Amino acid sequence: MTLSAGERASLAHDLILSLEEAGAYELSPEQEAEIRKRVEKIERGEATGRPAAAVLADIEAKLK
Fold first, then answer.
1. pTM summary value
2. In a structure prediction context, what are the per-residue pLDDT tens digits for the chain, which is 64 residues long?
3. Domain boundaries, the chain
4. Closest to 49 (Cα-Cα) out of 17, 1, 6
């Protein structure tokens, strides 16, 4: 938890990719650019996170 938000996001990205079979999944240049853009916004304090439970509850409510 001593890592910055951007460092944690990058680590989470790498960990998720490590769950896949080697070479089974690669991000497109557009996906990589979007991830970089979002990490930069977090690092600048321009974006805030929400608990996953809240996000999932919002999605579930919209699907009903």
1. 0.48
2. 788 888 888 888 888 878 766 566 678 899 989 988 988 898 898 988 888 888 889 999 999 8
3. 5-63
4. 6
